[in-house]
TrEMBL record:
Alphabetical keyword list: Electron transport, Membrane, Mitochondrion, Mitochondrion inner membrane, Respiratory chain, Transport
Main location: mitochondrion
Pfam family, one: Complex1_LYR_2
High-level lineage: Eukaryota, Fungi, Dikarya, Ascomycota, Pezizomycotina
A GO BP annotation: response to oxidative stress
Family named by the database record: Belongs to the complex I LYR family.
Keyword Mitochondrion among record annotations: yes
Acyltransferase listed as a keyword: no
Source organism per UniProt: Botrytis galanthina
InterPro entries hit by this protein: Complex1_LYR_NDUFA6_LYRM6 (IPR045299), NADH_Ub_cplx-1_asu_su-6 (IPR016488)
UniProt-annotated location(s): Mitochondrion inner membrane
One Gene Ontology cellular component annotation held by this UniProt entry: mitochondrial inner membrane
Membrane topology: Peripheral membrane protein
Full protein name: NADH-ubiquinone oxidoreductase 14.8 kDa subunit
């Protein structure tokens, strides 16, 4: 396999207006969808092309309501960089499978924000440990907070 670093290379540019940005997003989306069978074959993925396309669509849908044209341009740049790296085989299998980790491992998801995760951990730990009633409530919350910060940083 010959490596051609300029394969799929494009100049970065800013969108002139929202119509231009929309057409660029649709072009990028279509490129990803059309490349799904090639990606499946290239990386020997054990999943159907339809599942790949569904994940690609969900990644685009995640940013559907971005309303700042500069952010759209940045997302387009990142999308094209990922596309180029993927089709040039500059990634390894774990880099591709990281997008599917949340579907296969429900415990792999990160909390939406720090406080949500902190409260989830507190509830899980409080249900397992009985010594909370012996401690002052403020000290218990402080200790769980420090525990969660250490856990969150280690990930």
């Amino acid at each position: 396999m010959v490596i051609n670093p300029t394969y799929l290379a494009q100049r970065t540019r800013q969108s002139v207006n929202w119509t231009d940005a929309k057409s660029r997003v649709l072009k990028s989306y279509r490129e990803w969808i059309r490349a799904a069978p090639e990606i499946q074959t290239m990386y020997s993925l054990g999943m159907p092309v339809s599942q790949l396309r569904t994940k690609m669509r969900s990644e685009f849908e995640r940013h559907r309501y971005v309303n700042h044209i500069g952010t759209v341009d940045k997302l387009l740049y990142e999308s094209h960089a990922e596309f180029q790296e993927t089709l040039n085989y500059w990634k390894q299998l774990p880099h591709i499978l990281k997008y599917f980790r949340a579907e296969e491992d429900p415990t792999a998801r990160l909390p939406q924000n720090f406080m949500t995760g902190f409260l989830e951990v507190c509830l899980q730990c409080c249900s397992h440990l009985q010594f909370i009633s012996d401690l002052n409530q403020r000290d218990a919350i402080r200790s769980w907070y420090l525990y969660f910060v250490a856990l969150y940083i280690s990930q």
